[in-house]
Amino acid sequence: MTKAMEGKVVLVTGAGRGVGRGIALDMARAGAAVVVNDLGVALSGATETGLSPAQEVVAEIEAMGGRAVADGHSVADWDAAQAMVQAALDSFGRIDAVVNNAGNLRDVLFHRMTEEEFDSVIAVHLKGSFNVSRAAAPHFKEQGSGAYVHMTSTSGLIGNLGQANYTAAKLGIVGLSKAIAIDMQRFGVRSNAVAPFAWTRMVSSIPDDTPEQKKRVEGLKKLVAEKIAPFVVALTSDAGKDVTGQIFGVRNNEIYLFSQPRPIRTAHTSDGWTPETVAERVFPMFRNDFYPLHKSGDVFTWDPV
């Protein structure tokens, strides 16, 4: 691997396992110093014992001759996010990229979802991405450069069953990424969203009770978490300096550029609309272009390559 990130400092959240771990390791291989953030808890939020996942990844990076520090703060807390960025400054003197990868799941059908199940997912994914991004923003602005990568999901871009909280958070992250790209373009700062397809500890909590669910899970198991990292490294390197405000996907050896919402049909009347004329004219006119209630698996039907 070339040293595409030589001299740069990267903060990767949720980097103790899965996709985040792969990104942290590849960032180090590319020459970056890495702040490896991971709360070190079970998917349920319960505290785990032993050497923290973040410390384990730091040890791996140091063993390959790289530089890294572990951070155990929660992205859901504003002050903790500030501390993460400060750890980069204290340890390595600067910060050049933020990868918002930390996540959790509380899958449940919408009509059974509790307020806590909704709030906890929004707090980690959406609010957490805001907290960490906002903490780095003044430093990016001052140095006139910086890169954000925010992890979205096809659950947000397309939809999935039993994930109203996760879907809302992940589509919200797309909006957040675009807003950051617009607001900080003048300072040479870029922001992009990536939907990773990967079999990870978080994804392994998906139910497999029915034949359809089992088939889906078996397909997901073919998705290698480490395959996401090369694209993220390229995106945050100087080679990606002109890429901003986009939505990408990485699925094993496939890379996608996703569309973004734009009008696809219009209806106009010089007389103004009434409920009756809308029902009579607009709905029939638009019907052929309505999107069906697809779930992610309905769109990505081919085996990963």
From TrEMBL:
Cross-referenced Gene3D superfamilies: NAD(P)-binding Rossmann-like Domain
Record-linked PROSITE patterns: ADH_SHORT
Pfam families membership: adh_short
Domain (Ketoreductase) ranges: 8-202
Superkingdom, natural source: Bacteria
Similarity annotation: Belongs to the short-chain dehydrogenases/reductases (SDR) family.
PANTHER family from the UniProt entry: BLL2957 PROTEIN (PTHR45024:SF3), DEHYDROGENASES, SHORT CHAIN (PTHR45024)
Protein name, as recorded: NAD(P)-dependent dehydrogenase, short-chain alcohol dehydrogenase family
Taxon lineage: Bacteria, Pseudomonadati, Pseudomonadota, Alphaproteobacteria, Rhodobacterales
